[in-house]
Amino acid sequence: VETATDAHTPAEVPGARDLFSKFDPLIAEREALLATGVRDPFAIVMDEVKSPTQAVIKGKDTILLGTYNYMGMTFDPDVVAAGKKALDEFGAGTTGSRVLNGTYQGHKEVEDALKEFYGTSGAMVFSTGYQANLGMISTLAGKGDYVVLDADSHASIYDGCFLGDAEIVRFRHNSVEDLDKRLGRLPADAQKLVVLEGVYSMLGDVAPLPEMVAAVRKHANCMILVDEAHGMGFFGANGRGVYEEQGVEKDVDFVVGTFSKSVGTVGGFCVSNHPKFEVLRLVCRPYVFTASLPPSVVATAATSIRKLMHAGEKRAHLWKNSQRLHKGLTDLGFKLGTETPQSAIIAVILTDQTQAVAMWQALLELGLYVNMARPPATPAGTFLLRCSLCAEHSDEQVGQIIGMFEAAGKATGAIA
Ligand code: PMP
Questions:
Q1: What is the DSSP letter of 253?
Q2: Which end of the chain has the least Cβ crowding within 10 Å, N or C?
Q3: What are the phi and psi torsion angles at 264 (to 5°)?
Q4: pLDDT by residue (tens digit) across 403-413?
Q5: Which domain holds residue 372?
Q6: Residue having the nearest C-alpha atom to atom 13 of ligand 1
Q7: Ligand 1 centre distance from Cα of residue 35 (Å)
Q8: pTM score, two decimals?
């Protein structure tokens, strides 16, 4: 019996077009990989999450080393209590845009917390960090403007450029010289937005912001936006990010960030001292044309941000963990994304997909979850196991992690 669904299966209709055919190479590559018997690195389910550093995956207690939970705020009792209270008092969701019915007291409170945290006059909260970049870049730089960005920029930065229709000019990753050269080729009277990241999330390396700012200042009509998604909470005296730590706060026009990493929930934001900042609320499409964050989410974010203002001890422990893991893996003979520890991200570079997946699976079977990253997310066709540390990883856990890397590395031949 032919059903309506069968009748529309493209393969059964001669000469039918199939918009999915462009994905055939990817489907074939994945099928070949999974046929070797490995688990799918992109289909992990956390059955239980016990703490910022522990989960149960397929019945096994697993240490989490592949989250962005840098400061371990997801289970902070004050953060959780604030979320529950807001859920009870304001309900499950706002069902509306920030510019219509979707601004509650909690959205104002989290924007106030951000203004205090960053010491800025303006703060605008988006539903994700992805949307914050999408919205800020597309709204600031439109047709006829230029966005000058690092070649290794996050997907949300690239997508912001496409949405805004600006000319995109890329410079070589973290190259001050190339940035200067490319800016020098643009018309002096054109408006330019230079987009930088404090920490680049694939290799965990940090941008040389003072040198980059100095290069930008040689050219006319440039504004600077820094994405501090991976720097917030951890870098700088107040945890604002790499731009604070490196002393360029006065030179940065816009800081974009996320609640999905150190803050421990979900959401995105931009902070700025620009006197006309508020007008963006009316013209920024990824801000206007989507529902605002649920009250429970903004309440957890505000509480977490306020606690991160006094998180010196956590920050120190996160640095200690990062340095110890970097040294441990280097001593074992692994090739890492940076020669010295620069952030809480430590990328283990493997030779190819087969070795990366074998190593990833061996670690999982030992009880360690790390992120597998592959092109196009990674630079220069690299296959990485990306480790990100948490301030809540205990000394004992870091020791266990190094031991697991040694065992998995030897079993898979990744190290001698
Ligand atoms: N910017 C950078 C540099 C990121 O790494 C990410 C997320 N990984 C984002 C922005 C987007 O953040 P969100 O998860 O809040 O969408």
A1: S
A2: N
A3: 90, 15
A4: 999 999 999 99
A5: 35-71+311-412
A6: 129
A7: 32
A8: 0.94
